[in-house]
Design goal:
3 domains, alpha/beta, Rossmann fold, 21% strand, 7-stranded mixed sheet, D-amino Acid Aminotransferase, Chain A, domain 1, 5-stranded parallel sheet
Length: 419
């Protein structure tokens, strides 16, 4: 009888983690869904939920817990972080954790370079990574007029630390992206947000909505060679201008972009599953590198519908269970495959875009037809073998709908009260 395959431990099990659990679990890999809360991915039939300390506020406790958990496995499990603070914690303590596990994340020096946005943008300008022109805090008074509008955004939205401050993450979410049209707006913003300005970067704003965002996702091996890749674009996000992907589809990018990605991976010593986020400039059409995420991304589940899937390729390579990695088939035409969080997209398209971006608002039938414009739709929450996930998604959707309705009612009442 052959030994059971090594397990996969997936951290932060929203839809990102859920996709990894499903891809590996359906192939017979035992999976652990490790999270601080009972997120949607922890309900998958393919995973066992294990609650853990939150590395955002207790990194040491999380690492000690993870080490002890992995030491109890018969073979070293593969660690899949799916957001920044888990990636930071695993990468920073990678040498210790690899005594008992295999980490699908890069070494700390490379991860720190891309997570520290001010550091990465400075390097990007120096090495020609096609990043936006960025200004240090002591340069703000001398920003040239032609550089406006500026975008102000966090150097980190999530960090891994001991005794972390919960309010910090809330404030970074609030300041996710602020567009400053002119010098007066910049000066007023700096005065108003004085406490948080040291945690922000300021750079030339790349115009365009969320549908101008492109993802190049790769798996890079421990020798920093890209072994598998995916490219696609957001179709819709919420909010429409800066929202996370709700619907995405496969889409080709120019060869020079793929060459840039491979060069960055090699020069910075990156490995594991990575996301390179580009934005197409609404005026010039240029693809500008906005950021690099040293872990999988929210709609990584689309990759399994286009070939072996990045999680599966990573798992095979890191466990040495295949003499050769599976080859990806030729890419289909752009838009042939879509990934959708169906409940969220329905609420956004039928209701919330009315206020946020009316051009994307539509009736239920029109929304359904548009969603299925691609030949295949990977529905994040509605899959035949995952009924518990579907139920949770519907409940979460009902709560979101209730919050939206309550917010509109309060706004309407406030408007009447000021007349």
């Amino acid at each position: 009888m052959s030994a059971a395959p090594p397990a996969a431990v997936v951290f932060n099990c929203g839809y990102n983690g859920l996709s990894i659990v499903q891809d590996l679990g359906r192939r017979g890999v035992p999976c652990v869904a490790m999270d601080t809360v009972r997120s949607v991915g922890t309900l998958s039939r393919y995973a066992r939920f294990v609650p853990c300390p939150d590395p955002a506020v207790d990194e040491s406790g999380f690492v000690d817990f993870l080490y002890a958990h992995c030491a109890g496995h018969p073979a070293k499990p593969v660690l899949f972080p799916t957001n920044d603070h888990y990636a930071m914690a695993v990468s920073r303590h990678k040498r210790r954790l690899e005594e008992v596990a295999v980490a699908c994340v890069g070494d700390w020096e490379g991860v720190r370079t891309v997570i520290d946005k001010d550091r990465f943008y400075a390097l990007g300008q120096e090495r020609g990574y096609r990043t936006p022109r960025t200004f240090a805090l002591d340069e703000l008074a001398a920003v040239p007029d032609e550089a406006f509008p500026l975008a102000a955004k966090p150097t980190h939205r999530r960090v891994s630390a001991d005794a972390g401050e919960g309010a910090f993450h809330d404030e970074m979410d609030r300041l996710r992206l602020t567009v400053l049209e002119d010098r007066a707006a910049l000066e007023a913003f700096v005065e108003r947000e004085e406490r948080w300005v040291p945690h922000l970067v300021f750079q030339e704003y790349v115009p365009g909505l969320s549908d101008s965002m492109y993802t190049v996702g790769v798996y890079a091996d421990p020798a920093h060679a890209v072994r598998a890749w995916f490219s696609g674009r957001k179709v819709r996000g919420y909010p429409a201008d800066i929202g996370d992907c709700v619907v995405g589809e496969n889409a080709a990018v120019p060869d020079r972009v793929l060459e840039d990605v491979a060069r960055i991976v090699g020069e910075l010593g990156l490995s594991g599953i990575l996301e390179f986020e580009y934005k197409r400039h609404a005026l010039t059409g240029e693809l500008v590198l906005i950021e690099v995420n040293p872990r999988s991304w929210s709609w990584v589940g689309i990759t399994s519908a286009l070939g072996p899937g990045l999680p599966w390729v990573a798992y095979l390579d890191l466990t040495g269970r295949a003499p050769a990695l599976p080859a990806a088939p030729p890419p289909p035409p752009d838009g042939a495959v879509r990934y959708a969080k169906v409940v969220q997209d329905a609420i956004n398209s039928v209701l919330r875009y009315r206020d946020d971006h009316p051009a994307w608002s539509r009736g239920p039938l029109s929304w359904w037809r548009d969603l299925h414009a691609g030949k295949r739709v990977v529905r994040a929450e509605f899959q035949r073998d995952e009924p518990a996930v579907a139920v949770r998604a519907l409940l979460d959707g009902a709560k979101a709908l209730g919050r939206w309705a309550l917010g509109r009612a309060r706004s309407a009442a406030g408007g009447r009260g000021t007349r």
